[in-house]
Write a structure and sequence with these properties.
With 118 residues, the protein is an all-beta fold. It is built from no helices and nine strands.
Amino acid sequence: MDTTDTHGIATATATATVTTAVTVTTATTATVTATTATRYPVAPGYRLNVRSGPGTQYPIVRALALGATVAISCQTYGEWVTGPYGTTRVWDRIAPGEYVSDSYVHTGSDGLVAPRCA
């Protein structure tokens, strides 16, 4: 299409249609499940020994700081221990190769609060 501007000069005007193609690719995505572990407080005033197995005959791996909390991954039966929360033979696994007596952990239960360790 030709037009004349205010100065008498002929100009050509072109109209273009632009088509944009959008391609959406869907990929299979792995679902990541984040589990929020419940943390339980260690009895106040105790630096609790963490042992390599469910009994006091196992070596001490480390000691927890005063005011520590623990996430219990599983529980197992072991040596009887008396602590501030009673006498029990339940031991809490807090990490691979790390166990604490449940008698020093306030779980609010006399029974198991986590699955049995395999």
